[in-house]
Amino acid sequence: QVQLVESGGGLVQAGGSLRLSCSASGSFFSINVMAWYRQAPGKQRELVADIPSGGHTNYADSVKGRFTISRDNANNTVYLQMNSLKPEDTAVYYCSANAIVRASSRQYWGQGTQVTVSS
């Protein structure tokens, strides 16, 4: 299995910044795509950004120009730098990774970390 541990969430004022981190551990051959999702109360979980091992990042339109996803392949860690935060960014943010485990590609999820942006 793969365990994903997130950190960096918290309370921040509008216009502020936070940096989320997610480290993968366990028994796996490799990790392809890593991603960040978020879910606000009463809303569907949505993709915020993803980054394949090749580094071709993708972002939701709502965060383009404000958020940056990056990864450290040597340490199996993905980051989400969030700048110019808005109250509508408030949500639980989840780390996700597609990893090859015993020759099979599977998606794993972190426990989620709360991000609250005050106005």
Structural notes for this entry:
Strands 2, 4, 5, 6, 9, 10 and 11 form a 7-stranded mixed sheet that branches. Strands 1-3-8-7 form a 4-stranded antiparallel sheet, with no helix packed on it. It has strands at about 1-5, 10-15, 20-25, 30-40, 45-50, 60, 65-70, 75-80, 90-100, 105-110, 115-119. It has about 120 residues and is mainly beta. The radius of gyration is 14 Å and the shape is elongated. Strand 9 (about 90-100) and strand 10 form a beta hairpin. About 0% of the residues lie in helices and about 60% in strands.
Helix residue percentage: under 10%
Poorly predicted spans: none
Instruction: Calculate Rg over CA atoms.
Output: 14 Å
Quote the beta fraction.
over 45%
Which geometry do the CA atoms define? Answer: elongated
Write the layout of secondary structure elements.
Elements lengths: L1 E6 L2 E4 L4 E9 L3 E10 L6 E6 L6 E2 L7 E6 L4 E6 L8 E11 L2 E6 L3 E6 L1
Parallel strand pairs: 2-11
Antiparallel strand pairs: 1-3, 3-8, 4-5, 4-9, 5-6, 7-8, 9-10, 9-11
